[in-house]
Amino acid sequence: MNQPNEVASEVREFISRCKTVILSTVSGNGEPNASYAPFVHEAGAIYVLVSGLAKHTSNLLSTGQCHAMFIADEKDSVNVFARKRVSYTCEVQVVPRDAPLAPIVFGKMRDQFGPTIETLIGLSDFRLVELLPGQGVWVRGFAQAIPIHGLLS
C-alpha cells in the first residue's frame, strides 16, 4: 500500500527523533519479553546490536520475528493515553560481521552512539540484527491510527 507523502514524512521525522526501539519478542515456548535497544536505520531496515546473553536476542534469533515500537517520551506528550507512536511487525535476521552492509551500519552506529559501539563490536556475544518492518500503524493521537507498511525510508 502506498503512503500519502504527508504520513510518510511524519513517520520518518518521528522515528528520526528516537534513539531506541522497544522490542516485543516471544521465546520458542511462547514466553513473552519486552525490551529495548538503541538502533539505526538503513535502506528501509532497522539495525540493533544486541548481546547474545539477552533474552530478547535468543527470542529474535529463534523465532525470526518481533514487534518493534517507537514511542514519544511521556514528558513530551500532552496526554499519556494518546502518546504518538509507530509500531511494526518485523522479520528478523542476523547480519554477519563480514557482510558488505555491516561496516555501513557500524559506521552509522558510531556516529549516533559514540565510542561505546567499538567496545560492543569487539565483544563476541554481540550480534548485528536486522529488523525488516512490515505491516504497522502510526498513531498520531486519539482516533488517529493510520495503517502503514515498511519503514517509509
Task: Provide the descriptors you would attach to this structure in a database record.
single chain; 153 residues; alpha+beta; Pnp Oxidase, Chain A; 8-stranded antiparallel β-sheet; 4 helices; globular
What features would you describe in this structure?
The protein is globular and about 45 Å long. Helix 3 (101-113) runs antiparallel to helix 4 (116-122). The protein has 153 residues and is an alpha+beta fold. The chain has helices at 5-16, 55-63, 101-113, 116-122, and strands at residues 20-26, 32-38, 40-42, 45-51, 65-71, 85-95, 126-139, 145-149. Strands 1, 2, 3, 4, 5, 6, 7 and 8 form an eight-stranded antiparallel sheet that branches. The protein has a single domain (5-149), classed as Pnp Oxidase, Chain A (Roll), CATH 2.30.110.10. It is built from four helices and eight strands; from the N terminus they run αββββαββααββ. 27% of the residues lie in helices and 40% in strands.
